[in-house]
Amino acid sequence: MDISSTFNAGLQGFQRATQDANQAASEIASADLFNQSASDIGQTGQTTSPINVNQQQPTNLTESIVDLRVAEVQARASAEVIQTADEVLGTLLDVRV
What we know:
Elements: H1 3-44, H2 61-96
Helix pairs in contact: 1-2
């Protein structure tokens, strides 16, 4: 396997993990906002939040937390791929010099 393709695979995996983590974090934040809006309506009969609770679907908080954890593991694995490719490249340079 070519070292540059290994670097690219690690980098692409890390970028994908970042995107997945951002998506999961956004879903978690919106679920919290949904819960706050619902509790505001339940306590006062009116909403103080600009979000229309009737139109927003609640997100599955458990699934979003699991997705965030999966993205964390994916980022660690991709970082290890990048680090290993770096070490292999360093070893190759040491052997050739």
